[in-house]
Amino acid sequence: MPYVTEGPTGEVAQTDMIKHLLGRKGPSGFGSASTAEKVAKNWDGSGKVVIITGSNTGLGKEAARVLAARGAEVVMAVRDTTRGEAAAQDIRSKHPNANVKVMACDLSSLASVKDFAAAYKATGKPCHILIANAGVMACPFMLSAEKHEMQFATNHLGHFLLTQELLPLLSSTAKQASSNSRVVVLSSAAHFNPYKKEAGGPIRLDAIDSPERYDVWGAYGQSKLCNVLFARELHKRLTAEGAPVTAVVCHPGVIMTELGRHFEKTMSPVMRTVLPAAFSWAFKSIAQGAATEVYLATSPAIKGGEYYADCNISPSTAASHDDELGRRLWQLSEKMLADAGIN
Ligand SMILES: NC(=O)c1ccc[n+]([C@@H]2O[C@H](COP(=O)([O-])OP(=O)(O)OC[C@H]3O[C@@H](n4cnc5c(N)ncnc54)[C@H](OP(=O)(O)O)[C@@H]3O)[C@@H](O)[C@H]2O)c1
What we know:
It holds the Pfam family adh_short. InterPro entries: NAD(P)-bd_dom_sf (IPR036291), SDR_fam (IPR002347). Keywords: Oxidoreductase. There is one protein chain. The chain has 12 helices and 8 strands. It is 44% helix and 11% strand. The chain is α/β, with parallel strands linked by helices. An 8-stranded mixed sheet has the order 3-2-1-4-5-6-7-8, sandwiched between helices. Residues 53-54, 56-60, 78-80, 83, 105-108, 133-137, 154, 186, 188, 251-252, 254-255, 257-259 line the site of NADP nicotinamide-adenine-dinucleotide phosphate.
C-alpha cells in the first residue's frame, strides 16, 4: 500500500499536483476535472437514503443536489435549519422532484448529534449512505458545547458519535438492500500538516483541548488526520465484525467555499488577498470539489479503508497509516463520549 512520509512538498504530492493540473484521469476513469454530476451519471439513487452533514453550503450542498437529482432521498443534517431550508429550496427549484429534507444537527454539540440521530431513527427510515462532510477550518481557539477544541470536536468527535449512533441502522439497511452501506468521511490534504512533533503532534492526544500552543493550522491538520485515522480504524473494525458497511475517506481538492470564514480573524488582509490569487491555478470549482465524495458514495468500485483524492486512491501520510495512533484516537474519542455521559 503506497504512502508517503513527506509533506505536500514531497515528490508524491508534486506528482499529484501535475496530475491535478492536467486533469488527467486515474484508474477510476475520473480525475481532478470530473464533476459530481459526471461521476454520478449512471447511478440510480431511487430507494436510497443519504445523510449529509453540513450540506447547507459548499461541497455538501452540491453533493446533496447531485444525489437528489439522481433520485436519492437526501437528509441535510445542518446546524442552522434556516440556512438549510434555503439550500433545500434552492435544490428543489433546480430539480422539482428532488426529495431533500432538513434536520438539525450541530456537530460541535454531542447532545445535538445524539438528538439528531434519535430523531432520524424515530422516522423509521433506512440509511444507505452517511457523508461526514461538515467542517470548520482554522478558527481561533474555541471550545465546543462539551468543552473540546472546536476543530477536533466538529470535524472528528461529532462525526465519531454520529457514525456510532447510525451504524446499527446502516447495517440493517445494508442487509435489506443486500449491498454494503457506506460511511464517507471528508478529510483534507491538510492532514499532511498536523501539529509538529515538538508541539505534541501529530495528534495532541494528551492536550487536545488545551489553549496552550494552540495553532489554527496545526489543529485543522490534526482534525483532518483524525478523519483519516477514524475512517481506517472504522473500516478495520467493521471488516473484523463482518459488518456490511464500508468506510472510506477523501481529500476533495482545494475549492473556494465558505470554509475560509475564519480567515478574517486569523489571517492578515494582505494574506487574505495574496494567497487566493497566488493559488487560484490550483483551485477546483465546487462542482469538481464535490466529485470525490459523490464518487465514494455511488461507485460500485470503491475500496474500504482507503484515502481518495480526485476520485482515485491516493497516497496519505505515514501517520495516517499508524494503527496504534488510530487505536489511541478511538479510545480517546470513546472516553470523551463517556465523560459526556454518552455510552
Ligand atoms: N474547500 C476546500 O478547499 C476543502 C479542502 C479540503 C477539505 N475540505 C473539507 O470539505 C468539507 C466541506 O467543506 P466546504 O469547503 O464545503 O466548506 P463550507 O462551505 O464552509 O461548508 C462547511 C459546512 O459545514 C457546516 N458546519 C460547520 N460547523 C458545523 C457544525 N458545528 N455543525 C454542523 N455543521 C457545521 C457548515 O455549516 P454553516 O454554514 O452553518 O457554518 C457548512 O454547511 C469540510 O470537511 C472540509 O474540511 C474542503
